[in-house]
Amino acid sequence: MNFPTEILSQIGLYLDPASHHVYTAACHEWRQVFTPYLWSEIDTGAQPWKSIFRSASPAAVPDLLSAHRRRVRDLTIHDVESLNIVLYANLRDLYSLRVYTRHNTFSNPDFLSVDVPMFLNLLTNDEKWDNHIRSKDGENVFYDTLTLWRLVLTNPGLRKLELLNTTDHSGYTIFDDPVESAESFLVLALSRYLLAVSHLEIGWECGDMLLCELARFFLNLESFVHVGRKVDFRPSSLLPSCHLNLRVLTFENQITADQMRAVLFAFPRLQSLSIQTLTCTAKTFPSIDVIQKTLNFCPILNRLEFSLEQRQHLIEGALSQLSTIDFDLGPKKEPHPLKALINSDSNGECFTADSLITRLPFLVKLDVRIINVAVLVAITTTCKALEYARFSLEAPYPDGLCQFFASCSRLKECLGDGHIIAAEDLITRPEWACVGLEKLDIERPPCPGTTAHGHQVETSTRLQGSSFL
């Protein structure tokens, strides 16, 4: 069957690299269409690239990659061998680069003692690189470091840069003595040679330093991920409204209430904020207040994800209580444009924020663990745009669930426990408006006389597809 080239090109947009690889071998016409898709995104740890980079003829791989180097836009590297192959291909048009490394780039004493401007010139000058660097031993850790930064700095068009450590961070610190050399290299390398970068994630315990330097050297950055064992920056190191372009901020470890306050003041135009754990020092402090205060301060935030840790004992002099921090810069009753609210607490506490939900009419995604009846009613009456919901009900409320399905017409997924609905309601409820529902967790009331095992099987039902509506 012959397909027009235009249709094949549209099909290529939705295929994975493995499919692209298969279709390039189908015929000459398909090879012409799917080859650009195949080479635009390379991940050396996934198929088909994992097999290609470890082929029986490894000498041919660099030449093959070099032949298609102008097509490569997104690159993910998982090992030093692949890094050397990529460097040989002389890629210069990358938009996205993700590298997983075994070593801490800044742990080598030789690297830390270099003259930073001279070193940067060495990495970016083709002639000097060929004469002085390629002769180094490829098994040397310092050579691996040079290879990595050579690849980074010779792609000035990078929009997205992620340099991640494959270890568990134990035993790795970014700054051995002298600290100034490592800081100077990292800041100068990124701010001088990568002017187009908009997303940054570097996992060598340098998150604090980079976060505090965003306003000085990375004013065009829109997304930043803080990676490391802990968040340890001083709140006073972030000036209010120091960065107006940052839209997405992620902390992959816990932060304190004081640090949270400093972040909100420093980056007032955040649209997405994700925090693994927010540590509060008060004995009891409800997460509803944390969310309220955050939304009041960030009027354009559309995604908030966090987990709240309640410390049972105050640590005198170490941290101030979140309840003493004034985030309240706007009326609490005004609607907020938040579209995604994700509370990933693992303590199993009930989310009782019905007053907060009434402020979120534009909510599209909601993940809040356990909710009570009042919150379900608030969701039903307010969140008409909801598409993805995950919650468990504290107590059975079949009528409330039916009203929820009748009200949220855009709903595609509703997952969680305690969704008890009688079987006849699935059939006799014509007012259910969510005709596009794809995934639904429900629990049917047990039939009289069923055993405990039979009840367990009967009450754990997931429906996929909308044919049952």
UniProtKB/TrEMBL annotation:
Residue segments, region Disordered: 448-469
First and last residue of the signal peptide: none
Superkingdom of origin organism: Eukaryota
Biased composition (Polar residues): 457-469
F-box domain boundaries: 1-42
Name under which the protein is recorded: F-box domain-containing protein
Native species: Linnemannia schmuckeri
